[in-house]
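About this split. The held-out portion is used to measure sequence recovery: a designer receives only the structure tokens and must propose an amino acid at every position. Recovery is the fraction of positions where the proposal matches the reference. Here is one held-out target exactly as it appears in the evaluation file.
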């Protein structure tokens, strides 16, 4: 079913559906009516003798320059052309589509003063899978994600380069013609309406929230498998211990880990007087606390995203009572802070995951497993270098956790003298999320190998959930044995993490109704 734009704010799931999975969109009829009503206000002001920013004046530091009526179409076209100034590697299709979608949503609020034609053009571009090509550098996250949004507007005008539904690069004019679309001609204020928004950084936040919701659940699964295979205790996961520190994320993660470890013969096997370990290392014992803090961080970021998705961001904006007012709502600070905060949580989740993996490989800490889980230690290196790969990623994630939003470089002749760098925060969070998925995949790969070895040595059964994960992994990755080309194993595990296949296998094995803690990583 098409996703309707303009009837209500979009959800992060809907943003992901359109941006990543190509769901079609349709425009709410009432939204088009709202746009027509506010457009009439803009057209009335176009002939006013009083200057109005972006309607009859220049932009930014040129806001005092009056533009005669016969040059105003040129003004809007020049604005878009000059601001389509990105550089660098091509931005991912899903990010561009998310950016287009969120600008369309703002147009549909009727608060920008743009004609309904513009909304219809953007919806048509999305539905035809025409994706403007944008370089990753160009936005300072203030006055909107200017360069990325300008490239999108340029494509709607039939200029610049795009990729078609098959991924082929071509001039925008050719792609529009092939889709039966005519280039749009911008009128008063419409150039501003298309580029003044936080849509790029918000799109990246929405996509990251959807990805991390599943990734934190998968990190809980990996931690549970590590606790089991390292002969750790599940006693620290008890609900009555969690309520002593009532953070909701902590309770959710502990509940998930308890479910994944339910009926584990491995855990039960060492609940005897012979077990002399008093307590486990922090990376096992404190997993609910760290994972839970990441969950709560995600909940905060989801709140910011929800508010932003309900916003109408433009400058100037048409108010509910029909005034056209300048404002600062385009400043990306709220989204930039959230993006940076989430990157901190991502780095810490990965750091703890790597520490659990490292314990498996050290005979002084792995409770009787072979060095590096090697088949023939000395001849074989086992998972030694898989941990190196984790360590390299974790080190980068720590660098990526340094906030972009604390930086600001003035622009536009000091008119725009404080900027958010929210786009940069979004770019580094995307890399961080990818890194976390790889780190967790290596932990699961290592924990599965260790669990195979442990089960063989003890002659007991693992938990149904963890056994299901090992079985699913073994369909693509062989079990313990002599050293083999390891990169394909890591790639296969990573693909199973990203697709959600390992998490789905664990959940399907649970013999009771899935508790609320397992349904999502973000409180709604």
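Reference sequence for scoring:
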């Amino acid at each position: 079913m098409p996703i309707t734009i303009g009837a209500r704010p979009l959800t992060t799931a809907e943003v992901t559906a359109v941006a990543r999975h190509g769901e079609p969109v349709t425009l709410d009829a009432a939204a088009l009516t709202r746009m027509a009503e506010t457009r009439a206000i803009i057209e009335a002001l176009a002939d006013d003798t009083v200057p109005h920013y972006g309607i009859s004046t220049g932009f930014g530091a040129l806001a005092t320059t009056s533009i005669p009526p016969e040059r105003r179409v040129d003004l809007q076209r020049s604005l878009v052309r000059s601001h389509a100034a990105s550089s660098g590697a091509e931005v991912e299709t899903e990010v561009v589509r998310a950016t287009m979608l969120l600008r369309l949503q703002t147009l549909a609020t009727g608060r920008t003063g743009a004609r309904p034609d513009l909304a219809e053009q953007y919806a048509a571009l999305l539905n035809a899978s025409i994706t403007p090509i944008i370089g990753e550098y160009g936005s300072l996250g203030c006055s909107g994600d200017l360069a990325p949004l300008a490239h999108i507007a340029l494509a709607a005008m039939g200029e610049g380069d795009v990729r078609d539904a098959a991924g082929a690069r071509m001039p925008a004019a050719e792609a529009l013609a092939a889709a039966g679309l005519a280039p749009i001609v911008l009128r008063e204020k419409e150039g501003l309406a298309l580029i003044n928004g936080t849509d790029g950084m918000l799109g990246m936040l929405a996509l990251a929230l959807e990805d991390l919701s599943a990734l934190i659940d998968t990190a809980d699964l990996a931690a549970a498998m590590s606790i089991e295979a390292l002969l750790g205790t599940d006693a620290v996961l008890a609900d009555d211990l969690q309520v002593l520190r009532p953070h909701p994320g902590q309770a959710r993660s502990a509940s998930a880990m308890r479910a994944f470890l339910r009926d584990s013969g491995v855990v039960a096997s060492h609940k005897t007087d012979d077990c002399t370990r008093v307590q486990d290392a922090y990376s096992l014992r404190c997993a609910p606390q760290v994972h839970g803090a990441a969950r709560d961080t995600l909940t905060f970021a989801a709140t910011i995203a929800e508010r932003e998705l309900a916003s109408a961001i433009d400058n100037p904006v048409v108010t509910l009572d029909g005034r056209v007012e300048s404002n600062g709502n385009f400043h990306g600070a709220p989204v930039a802070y959230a993006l940076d905060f989430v990157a901190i949580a991502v780095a810490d989740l990965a750091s703890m995951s790597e520490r659990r993996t490292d314990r498996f490989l050290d005979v002084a800490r792995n409770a009787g497993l072979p060095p590096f889980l090697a088949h023939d230690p000395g001849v074989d290196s086992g998972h030694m270098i898989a941990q190196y790969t984790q360590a390299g990623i974790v080190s980068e994630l720590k660098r990526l956790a340094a906030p972009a939003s604390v930086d600001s470089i003035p622009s536009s002749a000091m008119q725009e003298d404080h900027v958010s760098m929210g786009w940069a925060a979004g770019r580094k969070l995307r890399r961080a999320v990818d890194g976390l998925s790889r780190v967790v995949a290596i932990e699961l790969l290592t924990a599965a190998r260790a669990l195979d070895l442990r089960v063989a040595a003890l002659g007991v059964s693992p938990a149904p959930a963890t056994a299901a994960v090992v079985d699913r992994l073994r369909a693509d990755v062989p079990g313990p044995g002599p050293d083999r080309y390891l990169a394909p194993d890591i790639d296969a595990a990573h693909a199973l993490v990203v697709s959600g296949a390992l998490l789905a296998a664990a959940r399907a094995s649970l013999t009771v109704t899935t508790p609320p803690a397992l349904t999502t990583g973000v409180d709604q």
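Annotator remark: The beta strands are 3-5, 25-27, 87-90, 131-132, 135-137, 161-163, 169-171, 317-318, 324-325.
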